[in-house]
Specification:
The structure is a single chain. 48% of the residues lie in helices and 0% in strands. With 141 residues, the protein is an all-alpha fold. The protein has a domain of 86 residues. The longest helix is centred in the last third of the chain and has 17 residues.
Length: 141
Amino acid sequence: MRLCVGIAVLAAGLVAAPPFSYAQGADIGKQEYLSKCASCHGKDAKGDGPVAASLKQKVTDLTVLAKNSGGVFPFARVYDVIDGREAVAAHGPRDMPVWGDEYSVEGASVSAGTATSPDLNSYARGRIVALIGYIYTPQAK
């Protein structure tokens, strides 16, 4: 059931995400990961990014999320952590980083000056879902 819900949310987010300035065929999830996550979680998502050693808490190895959740990828929890709804001690205070808020600001700046303003929540959801799709791919078996 959870997997079905996760897939439905993933599909809805991808449909709702406006294409904006990304080239056709670009891996948005990978771009989001490399620009927003790799400094701590590492290029290979194992928790060994260049900033990881300077943090007080060990950075999560994102490749074992499913393994550590009984073999089921914890889509809803990952979404909530990225969006900022679930507190993560290593991320510090709620304002650092709350990617849901960051994506909303980004969506507003991308849409500035256009005839129609996109639904900023859809923009944020689309970016988060693309990022989760990328994080899902290297899961350990």
